[in-house]
Amino acid sequence: MSERKDMELIAELVPAGSRVLDLGCGRGELLAYLRDHKGCTGYGIEIDDANVLACVERGVNVIQLNLEEGLSIFADQSFDVVLQLETLQHLRNTESMLRETARVGRIGIVSFPNFAHWPNRLRVMGGRMPVTRALPYEWYDTPNIRVGTYADFEVLARKNGLQVLDAFGIQRGRVVRFRPNLLASVAVFKFQRG
């Protein structure tokens, strides 16, 4: 299944007409999709020059900013939805960025590679780090600072006073609700302040 299907599954969590902030928006594909299919407005945050240019060419509002510096330029609850898709694993300040997501948005949606997916477990049991579609890098050249699991995020959310509104995994473009910590390569959480 394509990454496009994963994007569409996550887009279903965003209410039509929402004001959206996409942290680590990449080339702006999701924001353009939300604009064109759900009437959403908002901004992307991206650090990479080429990705910022791609956003501009796509007509997506983008701010070039290092997420490690926080979101102090935004007021509390200034967005309906804050997306943090495939970015948590790249950040040093994961916990504070999660709190910032809940501060500036009424709803937060995060996704990240689920390290507890069963093929990853087998690979580690065999003595090697996994290389998969969700975790496509060798251990020595990965941009990921950390790896996490579906179950770990549930604990992190509780610790930070977040109420999980929906949670599921994604595997090959399909939603996984039965044993997502084991059976899904990507974890997805929709949350708000508790």
UniProtKB/TrEMBL annotation:
Transmembrane segments: none annotated. Pfam families: MetW. CDD domains: AdoMet_MTases. InterPro entries: Methionine_synth_MetW, SAM-dependent_MTases_sf. SUPFAM superfamilies: S-adenosyl-L-methionine-dependent methyltransferases. NCBIfam families: metW (TIGR02081). This is Methionine biosynthesis protein MetW. It comes from Caldimonas thermodepolymerans. The gene is metW.
